[in-house]
Design brief:
The complex is a heterodimer. Chain A is an all-alpha fold. The two termini of chain A are 27 Å apart. Chain B is α/β, with parallel strands linked by helices. In chain B, the strands form two sheets. Chain B has a six-stranded mixed beta sheet, sandwiched between helices. The longest helix of chain B is centred in the C-terminal third of the chain and has 18 residues. Classes of the chains: A mainly alpha, B alpha/beta. The interface between A and B is medium-sized, with 20 and 28 residues.
Chain lengths: 308, 265
């Protein structure tokens, strides 16, 4: 089963890696191709040929997609469900929300910026606790057949469970909503990190261990100089997956726990029937998700040393 | 009589699902200091197994290996191994890969400056001093193997063990590295045990060629002394009668006496 997880993460990884360069390649990848003979070296010269094609691919095509979505949305707003606010009303709401994202009128009325920061705080707390537990456990599971045999069934049973199912347990144990939400995120993050770390340790080529044996590295040196660096790319992949799922789960968790946070903000605005705010919140959640993903990808790229 | 490196009546049996499998029997070989020995034989004849037993990575079922009178029972830097796929650590630079070995072997006996100099000296020897800060993923296969050789040499091993070191390289790169290896051997006088299945490589580089019979239960079939004078020049040897005689002897052993069932059919 752990191999299944691994292929999952790899396909995720390659698609994520491949997705990004497409636009960039179109813009810069053909720089070596000489410009069309008639191209003047004027200010508009860069918009010729491949550069123009790149601009179309990376800017115009997405614009068309957004245009179609907005048209569909307007149609639903006008003809199907008049209660759904239209694009204009939503845009006005967005301008209003973003004009003062950090206002604070007491715990029941705070700006959308605060809501996002509170949610991010819970996610990072749960994520941090999870990696502190999952990475050492992953190493043990990858290195020791005994640990793997002992833990694998438990992990396999718990992994497919929606982390939200743990919320009542959290509420019961902690008797408070905030630790419960963090607990849910902890559970969310633990499995991908654990399984990727274990898979990474198992994927270490025998050659590296033979080098360690010839050099007579001791246990600590093997850990620090071979196992950790060799496994790091897998660990980061697990962390990236964990963080992505955690950001999705926190919205649902906060809907149930209440308090300050983007999830409860969505639920609260539903109760107020301010659907414009909900659509704005969906957009904000998406943007924050992209930012988290980009941060982890940058970290991954920074630590990447390529295949030998 | 005692040799520098002695392989004494070594045999090995692996436990498999279909019962025990005997890979080697009665392997006996004495190697003198500074000698260059090639082990040649068809794939699957247990050449690598012999090498791994000398390296200490595998334990013989019978017999044993002694180096300078001491029994080999675990891997160590006195028997540096150069693996076919170079096995550089991809997260370390060229310099760091060699330096790690130098630090581990000479960390107590040499100063930091000395270790730095020794690392660079070995990389100069294999002509890789231009790429000290490159990662293995940024250099070619031949260059990686050069770094692997530098790392092994830097350990100042008593025996250099090479497991088809150039097997994965193209013919031109291989020729370059063979020349480099001859040059290094002339300068450092290392004792080398090299596995190959390239007849020309074996004749060109070796003082003696050890030819192995086919497995299972493979053993040494014949040992051929190569009396060609050093330094040897690839081009001169190509037309030399002695060279071609040695070459023919090895080919006859491999393709007449030890021809594989698949080849015979």
């Amino acid at each position: 089963m752990s191999t299944a997880i691994k292929t999952d993460t790899f396909s995720e990884e390659t698609s994520a890696v491949e997705r990004r360069p497409v636009g960039a390649m179109a813009l810069t990848g053909h720089a070596a191709v000489p410009p069309a003979p008639a191209a003047p070296a004027s200010a508009s010269g860069w918009l010729q040929g491949d550069a123009l094609r790149g601009l179309i691919l990376s800017v115009v095509l997405p614009m068309i997609t957004f245009g179609i979505i907005i048209a569909l949305w307007s149609f639903v707003h006008l003809k199907v469900a008049p209660d759904l606010p239209g694009p204009m009303a939503t845009f006005d709401e967005a301008v209003y929300q973003f004009s003062d994202p950090f206002y604070d009128n007491g715990p029941n009325d705070m700006g959308i910026g605060w809501q996002v920061l509170y949610s991010l705080g819970r996610v990072l707390a749960g994520f941090g606790l999870a990696i502190a537990v999952a990475i050492p456990m992953g190493f043990l599971m990858g290195m020791s057949r005994t640990c793997e045999r002992a833990w694998q069934p438990l992990v396999q049973i718990l992994r497919p469970v929606s982390p939200l199912a743990w919320l009542p347990i959290g509420l019961l144990v902690f008797q408070a909503v905030n630790p419960s939400a963090i607990f849910v995120i902890f559970i969310t993050c633990i499995w991908p990190t654990l399984l990727n770390t274990a898979a990474g340790v198992k994927a270490i080529p025998d050659d590296y261990m033979n080098v360690a044996r010839v050099l007579r590295l001791n246990g600590w040196e093997i850990m620090r100089r071979i196992l950790l660096p060799a496994t790091l790319p897998h660990i980061i992949t697990g962390m990236r997956l964990s963080l992505g799922i955690a950001w999705m789960v926190i919205v649902a968790a906060e809907m149930l726990t209440g308090g300050i946070g983007i999830g409860f903000f969505v639920w609260d605005e539903w109760n107020n029937l301010k659907v414009e705010s909900i659509i704005v919140a969906i957009f904000v959640i998406g943007m924050v998700g992209i930012a988290l993903e980009m941060g982890m990808t940058a970290l991954q790229r920074f630590l990447d040393y390529g295949k030998a | 009589m005692k040799h520098y490196l002695t392989i004494e009546d070594v045999g090995i049996e692996f436990q498999t699902r279909n019962g025990p499998f005997r890979a080697l029997r009665d392997v006996r070989l004495g190697v003198e200091q500074g000698e260059f020995i090639s082990l040649i034989g068809h794939s699957g004849c247990g050449k690598s197994t012999v090498l791994n037993i000398v390296a200490g990575l595998l334990e013989a079922t019978e017999g044993g290996v002694t180096l300078e009178g001491r029994e080999v029972c675990q891997p160590g830097p006195d028997r540096a191994v150069i693996f076919q796929n170079h096995s550089l650590l991809p997260w370390l630079t060229v310099y760091e890969n060699v330096r790690m070995a130098v630090d581990k072997v000479f960390g107590r006996t040499r100063s930091k400056v000395e270790r730095d100099e020794w690392t660079r000296e070995n990389l100069v020897l294999v002509h890789m001093d231009h790429a000290l800060d490159k990662r293995p993923s940024e250099i070619s296969g031949g260059m990686k193997q050069r770094v692997g050789i530098a790392r092994a040499l830097a350990m100042e091993p008593k025996v250099l063990l090479m497991d088809e070191p150039f097997g994965a390289l193209d013919a031109l790169t291989r020729a370059h590295l063979q020349d480099a290896l001859m040059e290094i051997h002339a300068r450092r006088r290392n004792t080398v045990l090299m596995i190959t299945h390239d007849v020309d490589e074996a004749v060109l580089l070796s003082d003696r060629i050890v030819m192995m019979t086919n497995g299972p239960a493979a053993t040494i079939g014949e040992v051929l002394d190569i009396g060609l004078e050093r330094p040897r020049q690839r081009l001169e040897l190509a037309g030399s009668a002695a060279y071609n005689r040695y070459r023919k002897r090895v080919l006859e052993f491999l393709y007449e006496r030890q021809c594989r069932p698949a080849d015979a059919a």
